[in-house]
Amino acid sequence: MQGELIAIVGASGSGKSTLLNILAGLDRPSAGGVWVGQRDLLNITEQSLVQYRRHIGFVFQSFGLMPLLSAQENVELPLHIIGVSWRERRRRAQEALASVGLGPRARHRPYELSGGEQQRVSIARALVTGPEVVFADEPTGELDTTTARSIIDILRRISAEGTTVIVATHDLSLAAAADRQLEMSDGLLKEP
């Protein structure tokens, strides 16, 4: 599983986004249990959950960028929250933005960026902490075909570099680019 690009496919409302939110520790299930590796996310302490979240990145469907912050400041935000020094935050954010091809756009605010550029900022923010796993909720859903292809290429590169990427998508080209596909139907996950 390490370094894989895994696509969870299914119709709208099938539970893909909910599953990602639960796996990322952002939501709790209404029933059952959730184990990620050796961690029981349902019975985990808040402090342990915070530690768990430090090892994951999340790309939100709506980008989730702070509108008054520059691209660089948006990418620095998770590092600021965990107490990384200003100089180190700046360096790592610049590297993350460069890795998604946005180094020259670092000072721009979200409203000055295209949808594809905003999504790349969101991906850079998810990567800046060096996560083991990146969860991406419909990362190509709001993008044109050409821009979506560039996002798919970035996600493939991230997984090739050893980070597991799990995407929820109904984009067939993204699903086809994945190493493995899982199908979500009526809240059940299965291999097709």
Automatic annotation (TrEMBL):
Keywords: ATP-binding, Lipoprotein, Nucleotide-binding, Transport. Residues 1-192 form the ABC transporter domain. The keyword Zinc-finger does not apply. One of its GO terms (molecular function) is ATP hydrolysis activity. InterPro entries: AAA+_ATPase, ABC_transporter-like_ATP-bd, ABC_transporter-like_CS, ABC_transpr_LolD-like, MacB-like_ATP-bd, P-loop_NTPase. CDD domains: ABC_MJ0796_LolCDE_FtsE (cd03255). GO terms for cellular component: plasma membrane. Signal peptide: none annotated. It holds the Pfam family ABC_tran. Belongs to the ABC transporter superfamily. This is Lipoprotein-releasing system ATP-binding protein LolD.
